[in-house]
Write a structure and sequence with these properties.
10-stranded antiparallel beta sheet, 33% helix, single chain
Length: 399
């Protein structure tokens, strides 16, 4: 769920390798001899475009097992792409617009629900966390009476990240991939560490902020946060490929590629398609598709999900150093603003979770791009390559 990984993200859990290494290597080599190409598919449909070229390079040059993209240009044309293989053991083409785990993009959905409740007068952005969750946020330099809801959504609370407590070695991500974590367990883990800074005095990405935001939603509505996301966003927008996994649900429901992680650069990919996403909860639990995710962000940026006052609050940003490799990012309330290399800016988020990384951006003139890969990056260079694909897709569709 966290961004800018230096290795396997601690928010991505894995399961143990279950195939003999030699058999796996042979299967990977066999699949590699006939890797489906986004460019070949585009040419078959009468196109020869840069998005397809770049998606193929994610597989060929950066060794991702597979990649998917959904792009909307300035004229409103939508094109979906895939490259690589659906399954490293058996090969096969990745279905277009298949379902993937979208990790921290869930934060934007959670933020929208919070802001809708603000618009309904049920939550106050500048009220303290302690007002909604009395007495549960206490620790070394941590006091819920000083942290506001706005601090949570903007990542300016100074709260430590529970990831850093629960997962300290890459192997943990494999061994604990089927572990279930309830939200209070995640919060309790975070509170064993000291605050990074006093609330409102800095910026640091922490999944703990959105666990608390989800708990605030549940306290105010008296309903599960996943149900609120479904009722308020997924159903009205007809996002049929997007869903909140139920408690204990470890498989992906719809058509999907396999997802992989590696414990180190160059290590074998480990299939982690089946896993328990509860570690993400309101910070990273959702499953979606590139097309659904693009449509959600386009609708949000167009101002169709929030009232004007809450839209303005969401898009008021602060500097977000280290949000992504390369810089040029600012963070609002659950959404980030990025300066494009071709000029102008775009809005999005991104997410990392076991087996999948997604990066996405949309512009205020209606362009949008989502790129997903089916292996979690093991280096900043791999993550940067995914983000660069999104930038290139948007810049290539600029009028």
């Amino acid at each position: 769920m966290s961004t800018a990984p230096t290795g396997p993200s601690p928010t991505v859990r894995r399961r143990r390798w279950t195939f003999p290494l030699l058999a796996t290597v042979l299967a990977v080599l066999a699949a590699a001899l006939a890797v489906p190409s986004a460019l070949a598919d585009a040419r078959q449909h009468g196109r020869d475009d840069a998005v397809a070229h770049r998606l193929d390079r994610l597989v060929a040059d950066h060794d991702f097992p597979g990649a998917l993209a959904s792009v909307r240009d300035a004229e409103g044309r939508v094109r979906n792409y895939t490259a690589g293989v659906r399954d490293l053991r058996t090969g096969g083409t990745i279905p277009r617009d298949a379902q993937v785990r979208v990790g921290s993009n869930t934060k934007t959905f959670t933020a929208v629900v919070v802001l809708q409740l603000v618009g309904e007068g049920r939550i106050d952005l500048d009220e303290t966390v302690d007002h909604y969750l009395p007495g549960i946020v206490r620790g070394d330099g941590i006091d819920g009476r000083r942290i506001t809801v706005r601090h949570l959504l903007q990542q300016t609370s100074g709260l430590p990240d529970y990831d850093d407590v629960l997962f300290t070695e890459p192997q943990d991500l494999i061994d604990l991939s089927h572990a279930y974590y309830d939200p209070r367990r995640l919060l309790d883990a975070a509170l064993t560490r000291p605050a990074a800074f006093a609330p409102g005095t800095g910026w640091e990405y922490s999944n703990t902020n959105y666990i608390l935001a989800g708990l605030v939603v549940e306290r105010v509505t008296q309903r599960p946060v996943g149900e609120e996301i479904t009722r308020r966003i997924l159903q009205p927008l007809h996002l049929r490929d997007t869903y909140w996994p139920g408690v204990g649900e470890q498989d992906i429901r719809g058509v999907h590629p396999h997802g992989y992680v590696a414990v180190a650069p160059g290590a074998p990919w480990v299939d982690v398609t089946s896993m328990d996403p509860s570690l993400g909860w309101a910070a990273g639990q959702l499953v979606s598709s590139p097309d659904d995710l693009r449509r959600f962000f386009e609708t949000l940026v167009a101002g169709k999900l929030l009232k004007p006052a809450q839209q303005a609050a969401m898009t008021k940003t602060v500097a977000a150093p280290d949000f992504e490799p390369g810089g040029g990012w600012e963070y609002g309330l659950g959404i980030a603003r990025h300066t494009l290399p071709c000029g102008g800016y775009a809005w999005g988020h991104g997410g990392d979770i076991q087996g999948f990384e997604t990066r996405n951006l949309v512009t205020e003139d209606g362009r949008g791009a989502v790129v997903a890969v089916t292996g979690l990056p093991t280096s900043l260079e791999m993550t940067a390559a995914v983000s660069e694909n999104v930038d290139a897709a948007l810049c290539g569709t600029k009028r």
